[in-house]
Structure prediction request, 754 residues.
Amino acid sequence: MGPQKTQFPPVAGVPEMQQPGTGSEIRDTSLTEAVATLRKRRWVLILATVLGASYGAYKAYTQPKLFGATATIQVHNGASNAYRVDSSGDYGDDQTTKMNTEVAILQSNALLTTVAREMNLANNPDFFGVEGPIPHQSLDDPNVHANVVGELQGSMIVSLVPRTEMIRLTYYSPSPKMAAEIANRIVHDYIQRSYQTPVESTRRVSEWLSGQLEELKTEVSQSQEQIMALQRKLGTLGYDSSHNQLQSSLEELLTAEESAKVARITAESRYRMLASMDPNTIEDSIETTPGTAPGELNTLRTQLAAAEASYAEMTATGGLGANNPRAKELQAQMAELTKKINEEQGRLEIQAKENYLAAKAAEDKIELELDARKAEAYQQGDDIVQLTILQREFDQNRTLYDGLKQRLETAKVQAGLEASEVDEVDPALPPVSPTMRAASSIILSNIVFFLLGGIVIVFILEGLDTGLHNIQEIETVMGMPSLAIIPQSKRTNAEQTATMSTAQRNIHVLTQPKSQFTEAFRALRTSLMLSTAGKPPKYILFTSAMPSEGKTTMASNLACILSQSDARVLLMDADLRRSNIHHRFGLTGKLGLTTVLAGTSTLEEAVQHIPEIPNMDILPSGPVPPFPTEMLGSETMQKLMEKLGKNYTHIVIDSPPVLSVTDAVVLGNMVDAVVLVIRHGKEGKNVMRRARDLLSRSGAPVAGLVLNAVDVKSPDYYGYYGYSGYSYGNIDADSWDTQTSAPGKRGAEGKAKQ
Prediction:
């Protein structure tokens, strides 16, 4: 079984790492980081300043002598606007827009082309600032035109005089006479244009309006003819009369249809009743003629009843009875009355039927007439809609025609009144002296411009840089605290090394006890001793991401620092592929860790000593084995680690790089603390993240990282140690360090304050 692994709390004296973005994260402000970035790459800013000053001096002392001629004009609405039909101007009340428009016209391509053509500037050597004749050029050539107009626009400055209606035009040229002539010519052509352009514009508008009026006149005539033809189709009374007449006719027919329907229903009811009822009750139940009594039928029935009564009385009183002549006469009378009654009843029934049929025929005829009128109304409705559309088109065309005709007459009157009145306040005069910018102003502006460019380049380089340059970046990327920062060691001269042993030449803490280098290792010792809860770590493993990071130097020097107290320390070289520790101390590498694990030698035979450090033993790596990783991960290695733990206070192990081989990952599960060594400015972010991930996934107890070979005078680390410049005087550093660990604590405290 291997030694018990211990979970490590945050290192004392070192700021605890926080997740990015948390409120408790300790970091510099953005402004401080920006200043640090500029200081780190100050050579870029220095180069930019030198280039800006050089280029500015070149521009200042090689600038051409230019003469500026200035002309001033006034643009306003003159007396001609009093005759306008419409007093509103083109720009309304926005005088600023109007003046800016006039400035743009003065700088326009068309106006400057006219000036160049009139003055033949394409063939004028004074215009180009050259001596002697130049080859003939045509302004119609696009290249020549672009060159000449571009020169005019680049040499001319047009500006508004504040709170006035005046415009100041300045032209710069190597020739003072040419400058004045061009400025005056531009003003002259601009004034001419201000009068000619409105006249031409009005003329074009008048021509267009005339053509539009002819088209509208034709359309109005055609619309009027179509309206008249449709009115004739609808009737001579026109649209309104025809519409009212048809409407009245439809209303009358609808009324008549209702009356006929009522009459037909009444006649049909009377007929059906007379045909189905008892003849004897006809006179009692229904009127034979609407509004009159059934007089004749009632009279006949009365007479029949009287005759029947007389006949009954006569036959009842005796006498001849039925053979009585009077009785026979009454019988004949009753028979005649009965016949007449039957005839009258038949006549009434026939009369009711004829009345019903007449009412039915009248109703049918009215309905036919109504249907015909409805069809006529529908047809007339389509014509009325078409007439309405034609009438609307006619009114619109007529209104537009009248408006355009009035506008045309107005345009003819306003043809010469649209121009703004331009007065030449001050003509351009040939300048006496050239106009040149101050050399200091040119140099300063170029320095500022180049310096701003340098600042941009600095931050671009900083963004593209994937290296790790300061402890804040490393801690953020690695997600682990820094145990110490090891500065670059000072080299000893040849005279001093001549009298030193191999260990003293390679292990600087032995020969430089008062240096910052040695004090950094004391701070590392303090951080490691306080990195575990309860007791200091016994097994300490040093590894790195890639080779040449300085892990062997870290392990050797830390082992020497640990052995300066009463502790017994073993320095083990577990880099079985590229062993180096025995060379650092001038020892032999024939026996070592591999021979112990292979069983060809004992631990006592392989462990070596040096007189300079009595409390420290060294176990070299030994011969290179065929399978280093399997040997380090064997059970024999675990038993050896347990045995060493009983004999030594601390075992410092130097292992291979974690990204090269897996030896460090295997050993990481057998130790109490793993220290990752990073050489300042050597590896990038991706390499360090990969090393961190490998150690984290393996479960190795990573105590933190050590930044090696740091220039403490650089802006990123200046003042990192709080004891910079501190002197020990005549105190023996070794004996003092043995008695107390105050220097190491002070170094850690100074680092923590940063």
